[in-house]
Design goal:
By secondary structure, the protein is of the alpha/beta class. It is built from 10 helices and 8 strands. The chain has an 8-stranded parallel beta sheet with strand order 7-6-5-4-3-2-1-8. The longest helix is centred in the C-terminal third of the chain and has 18 residues. It is globular. The chain starts with a helix and ends in a 7-residue tail after the last helix. The structure holds pyridoxal-5'-phosphate (PLP). The site of pyridoxal-5'-phosphate has 13 residues, from strand 8 and helix 10.
Length: 224
């Protein structure tokens, strides 16, 4: 077993059964992904549409590809034929485009609303109020080729564990409250939060899906 396979095995041991591990492979070569695949990993995340599309073409077709990065509306068409889950939806116009492209591909695409929970200004995402507005909207009911499966959040980049914990807790609480709002377009079974440095904390606060990159593949040469 190489280091990638060992890392995946030890992380899988740390996380409960109901939590999905997304191996975040951005910037890493397809050979690394293939090694993770050979160890049984089937769920991968990328944050750039071009890279995601290229890797999808080169790798086994039973991989579930997650788009975890900031979404550009005009590029959604490239991933619509195959993407498994889109994490970073942060406005209604993107939902309209996802629905349009899903329809063209005769698919129903699952996505998550990205909620801003960090104190920093740099993180993308909707406020909880804006997310509620989308969830309650009549227009959402017309988007028959998508389902909002829950929420994604990124905590502040800080050593302050208490702050990170509180940010995760606030999203978890929001998630719980929205379960009562379930309808055909909104079925919030997924809470995507937690990365290499904080995934155990995120799971303690109710995360069902962790996005782990460097703890599996090592440091990225350049950060994007
Ligand atoms: C890169 C990235 C991750 C993984 O980060 P690590 O710290 O390497 O685990 C998780 N989520 C998003 C949205 C990312 O862009």
């Amino acid at each position: 077993m190489n280091f990638i396979q060992k890392n995946i095995q030890s992380i899988q041991k740390n996380i409960p059964k109901g939590v999905t591990l997304i191996a975040v492979s951005k910037t890493h070569p397809v050979e690394f992904i293939q090694q993770a695949y050979d160890a049984g990993q089937r769920v991968f995340g990328e944050n750039k549409i071009q890279e995601l599309t290229a890797k999808h073409e080169q790798l086994p077709k039973d991989i579930q590809w997650h788009m975890i990065g900031h979404l550009q509306r005009n590029k959604i068409k490239y991933i619509a034929p195959f993407v498994h889950l889109i994490h970073g939806v942060d406005d209604f116009k993107k939902l309209i485009e996802i629905n349009k492209q899903a329809k063209k591909n005769e698919r129903v695409i699952e996505c998550l609303l990205q909620i801003k929970i960090a104190q920093e200004d740099t993180k993308f995402g909707l406020s909880m109020d804006d997310a509620l507005e989308i969830i309650h909207s009549k227009e959402l009911l017309e988007l028959e080729n998508l389902v909002i499966k829950g929420f994604m959040g990124m905590a502040s980049f800080t050593d302050n564990t208490e702050q990170v914990k509180q940010e995760f807790a606030s999203l978890s609480e929001f998630h719980q409250k929205t379960i009562a709002l379930q309808n055909e377009r909104f079925s919030p079974t997924i809470l995507s939060m937690g990365m290499s440095s904080d995934y155990l904390l995120a799971i303690e606060q109710g995360s069902t899906m962790v996005r782990v990159g460097s703890a599996i593949f090592g440091n990225r040469n350049y950060d994007i």
